[in-house]
Amino acid sequence: APSGAPLPRERQSVPRACTAQEIERFFRCCSLSDLEGAARKVCERVHGHAVYLRGLIEFTNYCTSNCLYCGIRRDNQKVRRFRMDEGQILDAVQQGLSMGFKTFVLQGGEDPRWTVDRICRLVESIKAATRNRVAVTLSCGMKSGDGYRKFADAGADRYLLRFETSDPELHVRLRDGQTLDQRLEALDHIRSAGFQVGSGFMTGLPGELPETRLDNILLCQSLGLDMVGIGPFIPHPDTPLAGQSSQGIELALQGTALLRLALPLAHIPATTAAGSIVQNGRELMILHGANVLMPNMTPEAFKKSYLLYPGKICIEESCARSLADLKESLFDIGRALSFERADAVKLAHWR
Ligand code: SAM
Ligand code: SF4
């Protein structure tokens, strides 16, 4: 997989990553607006004014896992289950390609019908159909070390697997018995397979302590992530966490700003969950240091059934409409959409 995005000429030096001690001090002492200013400067120095686009395809909502927070968990009987087939996924990719997308994220539940070998064949088909012009990111949960290697051998470029929370006790409870160590071991396998690695967490989970929030950031830094996805937890009414309160967007904004200071080169998406609890949530994340957007390219017939949480945005409108709206709202905050494939930025590529 290619490992360096072309960098504009004006990028002369790498902003220094803050140390763990500095991050802890900022976490304890800085106001959100101080963090916002510092993070925005670092983000502009590394990524300029571009906001990179990735087309998100939610290809299955079947899942054998039973995470307490998730609307498509195994035990939610109210979900209308769907599974896209190869032809439908390739059509979505072709449509995205014709709009200019060069990166696609295939996200789904842990679906036993979408086996590792079948996903490998899908990745190969996407690469062949696009003459290797697009980057493929997978986000389909826990696999064996061998499984991740097969994905990489098939040509997948990036893998996203959030650790969800750095608190081991909270993790095992919310992920229905799966331990944080198991999740971190999977991330190790993903790195060893040669992927550009993404992880992250939810903010405001019930039971999360202020220390957890700091530890979440420090864990992302110690993992040396290429991509970090974070977003507010939003309680789903048909899960065991129904009735828990949502902590709003501030914790996600604080997390985004601290992550930008801890990992200046990382690609950090402004997530749909942020835009779902506050109307301008994604724009706010960008102003706090995020530099990626993932418009939803799932066909309209399916995306309404991929409800991880209530109030999810962009399920009633086409991807083209969402893009047009995003272009306008980014212009208003001095940013511009970019269709560059924007691989992980590596130090070696700084001139
Ligand atoms: N199944 C894969 C996995 O769990 O890694 C990928 C799909 S999963 C639905 C993608 C992400 O959705 C999870 O990593 C989690 O952080 C997020 N998510 C699930 N339920 C959520 C909720 N109620 N509020 C906010 N984010 C949620
Ligand atoms: Fe399945 Fe992922 Fe939802 Fe957990 S978060 S239930 S693994 S789709």
UniProtKB/TrEMBL annotation:
Residues 49-269 form the Radical SAM core domain. SUPFAM superfamilies: Radical SAM enzymes. Binds 1 [4Fe-4S] cluster. The cluster is coordinated with 3 cysteines and an exchangeable S-adenosyl-L-methionine. Signal peptide: none annotated. Pfam families: Radical_SAM (PF04055). The keyword Methyltransferase does not apply. S-adenosyl-L-methionine binds at E164, R175, R183. (3R)-3-methyl-D-ornithine binds at S139, S276. Its cofactor is [4Fe-4S] cluster. Keywords: 4Fe-4S, Iron, Iron-sulfur, Metal-binding, S-adenosyl-L-methionine. This is Biotin synthase. It comes from Desulforhopalus singaporensis.
